[in-house]
Amino acid sequence: MFASDEKHALATAFHTGLVTADWELIRSLLTDDVIWTLPGDNRISGRVAGADAVVEHVRLIAGYGVNFEFQRVLVSRDNLALSLHNTAERDGVVLDEYLATVCFLRDGKISAIETYLSDVDGMNAFFV
């Protein structure tokens, strides 16, 4: 079980990796068998398995010019969530969504991620 400050540090490191495009940092936070599930029906939706695949998926999302605005870290007894406000604009299509990226922890790393969104239809329109 992680202490609350350790969960905050892990969440902060994940966000730092996102905004600085530090893919090695993100990779270091993941178990080899990590799974990430995203809602919707678009290019980034579905389930991604394996640390290298998750890192490539993060790179794909960042490649759309998304601004990952940090809101707060939420912690449970065993896990954590990042509350984010993601925005971007591409070819006249605007992304403006709030999300919770819930991270399930094992052995000091992120073993599963599930993303919850405020605007799945907006995500579908943006990530074509």
From TrEMBL:
Q: Which Gene3D superfamilies match?
A: 3.10.450.50
Q: Which InterPro entries match?
A: NTF2-like_dom_sf, SnoaL-like
Ranges for domain SnoaL-like come to 12-112
Q: What is any Pfam family matched here?
A: SnoaL_2
> Mind telling me what this protein is named?
Nuclear transport factor 2 family protein
Name its species: Streptantibioticus ferralitis
The organism's taxonomy opens as: Bacteria, Bacillati, Actinomycetota, Actinomycetes, Kitasatosporales
